[in-house]
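Troubleshooting log. The previous structure file for this entry was overwritten by mistake, so regenerating from the original sequence record. Sequence copied from the archived sheet and checked twice against the printout by T.R.
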Amino acid sequence: MNSSVGRSIALIGKRAQNERQRFESLCAPLQADLFGFLYWLCRDRNLAEDVMQETLLRAWKSFDALSNEKALRPWLMTIARRELARTFERKRLPVVDLDAASEADPTSLAHEDDHDVREMRRAIMQLDAVYREPLVLQVLLGYSSEEIARHLGISVAAVLTRLHRARQALRQHMLGTGKKGAQR
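Regenerated output below.
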């Protein structure tokens, strides 16, 4: 009986190790995209790393619920988006003493970055989330319109509309035009 139990335990251990290796091999190529997606959403490297770890932990815990490996990428992105939302629900933003900040050396607050890049990032972050998310998914992560539609649970036409409106708003912001539509 002991040898039978020992073989069963060894078999279970081997199966668990194979599942872990399968999970890691499937998720490893997606980690850079996952981090990039989270970073674009929260603009905080440490927070993005923390949320990515929580995302992978949640994904591992429910890995057996994933029925189609081809759906892994949108499945992970959905988990990441929800985990980030949970984080912001719990997060208390730090309070900065305005007097101390105003007395600080202005060069210490400066961040070296190209002005146009900063302005584009600011404009993207000012977009409503319904427009920002499909734009980031397409431009940063290379999702197709169909993949974005599946990921967000909307139609392809809605994705195309949101992408068009996002680009139109960015164009208006960057060109400094206040009118709707493109100037020609």
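Residues 177 and 184 are 12 Å apart (CA to CA). Archived copy saved in two places this time.
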